[in-house]
Amino acid sequence: MNKEVAGSLAWGVGILVLALCASLARKLGYLDSETVTRLVIGANGLMIAWWGNRMPKAFVPNAAARQLRRVAGWSLVLSGLVYSGMWAFAPLALAVPVGCGAVAAGILVTFAYGFGLRSGHAKNRLT
Question: What are the residues whose beta carbons fall under 8 Å from the beta carbon of 32, sequence distance 6 or more?
């Protein structure tokens, strides 16, 4: 099994275990339901940041594709951390739109940069 599949499985199993343990703690009265929601959804943001950190490290033969992966990695790391931070500290009415907006902005930055590379607006062209 390669490292990317093992890491993805570890994140999936980890989030499931976190959700089950948090649900058990809620049933036992140690956590309230809002804290359980914040824990599990905040872990999703950390997973997005982890994927963004892994992206530039994968080998890509094209220089422009490497450049795109670096931008995508940075945008996903930053948006994932904002998403997790919002779910950890902001009120829920603010965490949902701002957190989801941060992830959407990270994806939009990646697409815009990729289209810019493709059209030749950036230094290297993506072919």
Answer: 26
Identify the CA nearest to 40 among candidates 109, 96, 87, 82: 87
Instruction: Look up residue 97 and give its amino acid.
Output: P
Radius of gyration of the chain, Cα coordinates, nearest whole angstrom: 18
Q: What's 123's DSSP letter? A: S
CA distance 120 to 56: 21
The one-letter amino acid at 62: N
**Residue 32 to residue 105: CA distance in whole angstroms:** 31
Q: Are 18 and 39 in contact (CB under 8 A)?
A: yes
Reported pTM: 0.84
The residue assigned the tokens 């290297």 is 124
Q: What is the pLDDT of residues 26-79, one digit of tens each?
A: 999 999 999 999 999 999 999 999 999 988 888 888 888 888 999 999 999 999
The DSSP string of 40-106 is HHHHHHHHHHHHHHHGGGS--SSHHHHHHHHHHHHHHHHHHHHHHHHHHHS-HHHHHHHHHHHHHHH
Residue type, 67: Q
